[in-house]
């Protein structure tokens, strides 16, 4: 994971014209993609995946692998467990995949997934990342008392109208766009009453649907400032390196190519909006034709269909999806596949 070449300069971000190799981006999912059993078949078949789970278990001091493979689901849903669990499955799948296909041109991740992207790019070690996101989840959960904050998904309404509704609904409280996921899906976050008012206004003003989400805290809004302050201390204490691949940061929908900016944008992300739509548009503008979602689920591939159906979006989260993606790349499995072994 650490024998990476130097990252492209910002002036070299565009794909080479006339190149026959498709321009690819690895993208990594965030919270909400978890499921009991995730990563188990990869850990059983591939030593590098099994070692990744063992590394996470050692870094955290408990059997995260067992929670991923066996649950229980209610424990896996706890934010401070969910975040390192998804990161670990994503990195396990990444390590299996990257031995078998060409390197990506760019990487990006949705919220928590931005940490997976930085691990992929060598900005931080996996062990440091898994401990950091464990703390990130804990800080986010503790930042706002249960019931004080809420989130809602607004479907079928553009960002300008959603922003107007949030401003009108705030009435001195916090209410803002948290996740700009696609032209058809924006998630808002803030104080419970303000978010409920905004959802009602969205319904009245032509949204296809406005629904409150079953989340444990109001992520990516100003109410997360206590979590942001605590996480900043952790991130600033980490040893980081220059990213090998440009990483698209959520808060600016811009390329990050140095380690200091990597840290500052991860800090800002806690209270800032996840500009996923704009991030994917940036990658498309830079010639990306093939996106590979690495980690549990296919949420990001679903969003890509709403953003640009002409682009190819593959996913790697288990053995079946790995084989499909390798087939799409014309890659074959190495002939010496280790025999199936017990997961840790």
Fill in the keyword field for this structure.
344 residues; disordered C terminus; 2 domains; four-stranded antiparallel β-sheet; alpha/beta; single chain; disordered N terminus; six-stranded mixed β-sheet; Alpha-Beta Plaits; globular; Malonyl-Coenzyme A Acyl Carrier Protein, domain 2; 15% strand
Count of individual domains: 2
Mean pLDDT across residues: 90
Please state roughly what percent of the residues sit in beta strands, choosing from under 5%, 5-15%, 15-25%, 25-35%, 35-45% or over 45%.
5-15%
Bulk shape:
globular
- The first-level CATH class name of the largest domain: Alpha Beta
What does the radius of gyration come to? 19 Å
Put simply, the count of helices is 14
The main β sheet shows up as: 6 strands, mixed
Distance between the termini: 21 Å
Report the CATH topology name of the largest domain.
Answer: Malonyl-Coenzyme A Acyl Carrier Protein, domain 2
Name of the CATH homologous superfamily of the largest domain: Malonyl-Coenzyme A Acyl Carrier Protein, domain 2
- Uncertain segments are 1-19, 332-344
* Annotation, overall tally of beta strands: 10
Helix content: 40-55%
Record the strand order, biggest sheet: 8-7-2-1-9-10
Output the structural class: alpha/beta
CATH architecture of the largest domain: 3-Layer(aba) Sandwich
String of helices and strands: EHHHHHEHHEHEEHEHEEHHEHEH
């Amino acid at each position: 994971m650490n024998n990476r070449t130097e990252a492209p300069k910002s002036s070299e971000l565009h794909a080479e014209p006339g190149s026959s190799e498709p321009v690819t981006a690895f993208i990594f999912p965030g919270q909400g993609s978890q499921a009991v059993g995730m990563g188990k078949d990869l850990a059983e078949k591939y030593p590098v995946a099994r070692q990744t789970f063992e590394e996470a278990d050692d870094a955290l001091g408990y059997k995260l692998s067992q929670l991923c493979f066996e649950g229980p689901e209610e424990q896996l849903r706890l934010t401070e467990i969910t975040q390192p669990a998804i990161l670990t499955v994503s990195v396990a799948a990444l390590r299996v995949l990257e031995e078998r296909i060409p390197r990506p041109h760019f990487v990006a991740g949705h919220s928590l997934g931005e940490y997976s992207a930085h691990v992929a790019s060598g900005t931080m070690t996996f062990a440091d990342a898994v401990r950091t996101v464990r703390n990130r989840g804990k800080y986010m959960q503790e930042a706002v008392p249960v019931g004080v904050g809420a989130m809602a998904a607004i479907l079928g309404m553009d960002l300008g109208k959603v922003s107007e509704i949030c401003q009108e609904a705030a009435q001195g409280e916090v209410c803002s766009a948290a996740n700009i996921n696609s032209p058809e899906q924006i998630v808002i976050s803030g104080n419970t009453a303000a978010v409920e008012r905004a959802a009602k206004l969205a319904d009245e003003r032509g949204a296809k649907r406005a629904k409150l989400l079953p989340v444990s805290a109001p992520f990516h809004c100003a109410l997360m400032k206590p979590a942001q302050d605590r996480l900043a201390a952790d991130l600033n204490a980490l040893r980081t390196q220059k990213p090998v691949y440009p990483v698209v940061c959520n808060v600016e929908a811009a390329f990050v190519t140095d380690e200091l900016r990597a840290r500052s944008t991860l800090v800002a992300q806690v209270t800032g909006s996840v500009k996923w739509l704009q991030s994917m548009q940036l990658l498309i503008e830079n010639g990306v034709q093939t996106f590979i979602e690495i980690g549990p689920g296919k949420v990001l591939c679903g969003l890509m269909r709403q953003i640009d159906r002409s682009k190819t979006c593959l996913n790697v989260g288990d053995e079946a999806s790995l084989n499909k993606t390798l087939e799409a790349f014309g890659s074959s499995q190495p002939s010496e596949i280790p025999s199936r072994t017990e997961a840790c």
